[in-house]
């Protein structure tokens, strides 16, 4: 945990907008995000913006040999940390913008659940468009897209735009409980295609 926090804080200095957080997510937020996933049915799990693995830690206990996990993370230093921390999992150092190419390279045709740690508020619009385009294309019908939001950011126009987009794109959007112990407090949108 301490090593993850050190790596995380080190990278914030170089790329604060791309990292988009002051600390890795808490274990409780990870658990709240993973809880809605029925791992007996969801076999292909993709994580967006895995960072130093805060949400990955919550996913790992549910994975069996029948599951396929793929973590996508833009920051090379984070990917190196992730590969050391989770040697049995596959991580790709790339942008989710290139999800189509990444999935093709890994022989994955569709995704059952996406656990997303991307910093939507600071992601350029073009990246958001391309990422959501891929989600619409590759997530199976009935599949889950779960993405967190910080409570403090809710009144911002970027947060409103995200809510509108999720509402327009998914058949159901609900929220997890608020995790007050996360820094800053956060919850997640649970979106079903
Ligand atoms: C808010 S941090 C969350 C990290 C981790 N999931 C957590 O919850 O602690 C956002 C992460 O998304 C990554 N990221 C930003 N833009 C990305 C992109 N276009 N593709 C993949 N990862 C990206 C950042 O490098 C960072 O690790």
Strands of the biggest beta sheet: in what spatial order?
Answer: 3-2-1-4-5-7-6
What CATH architecture label applies? 3-Layer(aba) Sandwich
- Percent helix, as a range, is 25-40%
Number of strands: 7
Computed Rg: 15 Å
- Poorly predicted regions are none
CATH superfamily: Vaccinia Virus protein VP39
Topology:
Blueprint: H1 2-14, H2 16-19, H3 27-34, E1 44-48, H4 56-59, E2 68-73, H5 76-85, E3 90-93, H6 99-105, E4 111-116, H7 125-138, E5 139-150, H8 157-169, E6 172-175, E7 186-192
Parallel strand pairs: 1-2, 1-4, 2-3, 4-5
Antiparallel strand pairs: 5-7, 6-7
The chain binds S-adenosylmethionine.
S-adenosylmethionine (SAM) is lined by residues 18-21, 24-25, 48-51, 54-55, 72-75, 78, 95-97, 117-119, 123, 127.
What keywords describe this structure?
seven-stranded mixed β-sheet, 23% strand, 7 strands, 8 helices, alpha/beta, binds S-adenosylmethionine, Rossmann fold, 38% helix, 193 residues
Outline the structure in words.
- This protein has 193 residues and is α/β, with parallel strands linked by helices.
- It has a single domain, classed as Rossmann fold, CATH 3.40.50.150.
- The protein is built from eight helices and seven strands; from the N terminus they run αααβαβαβαβαβαββ.
- Strands 3-2-1-4-5-7-6 form a seven-stranded mixed beta sheet, sandwiched between helices.
- Strand 2 (68-73), helix 5 and strand 3 form a beta-alpha-beta unit.
- The N and C termini lie far apart (34 Å).
- The model has no long low-confidence stretch (mean pLDDT 95).
- Bound molecules: S-adenosylmethionine.
- The site of S-adenosylmethionine has 25 residues, from helix 2 and strand 2.
């Amino acid at each position: 945990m301490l090593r993850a926090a050190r790596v995380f804080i080190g990278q914030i200095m170089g790329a604060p907008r791309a990292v988009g957080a002051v600390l890795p997510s808490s274990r409780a937020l990870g658990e709240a995000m993973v809880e809605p996933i029925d791992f007996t049915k969801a076999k292909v799990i993709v994580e967006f913006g895995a960072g130093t693995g805060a949400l990955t830690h919550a996913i790992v206990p549910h994975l069996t040999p029948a599951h396929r996990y793929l973590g996508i993370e833009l920051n090379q230093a984070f990917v190196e940390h992730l590969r050391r921390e989770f040697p049995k999992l596959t991580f790709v150092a790339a942008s989710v913008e290139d999800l189509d190419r990444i999935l093709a390279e890994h022989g994955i045709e569709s995704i059952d659940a996406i656990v997303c740690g991307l910093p939507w508020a600071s992601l350029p619009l073009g990246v958001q468009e391309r990422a959501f385009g891929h989600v619409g294309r590759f997530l199976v019908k009935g599949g889950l897209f779960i993405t967190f939001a910080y409570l403090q950011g809710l009144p911002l126009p970027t947060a409103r735009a995200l809510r509108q987009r999720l509402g327009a794109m998914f058949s159901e959007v609900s929220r997890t409980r608020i995790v007050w112990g996360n820094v800053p407090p956060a919850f997640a949108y649970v979106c079903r295609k």
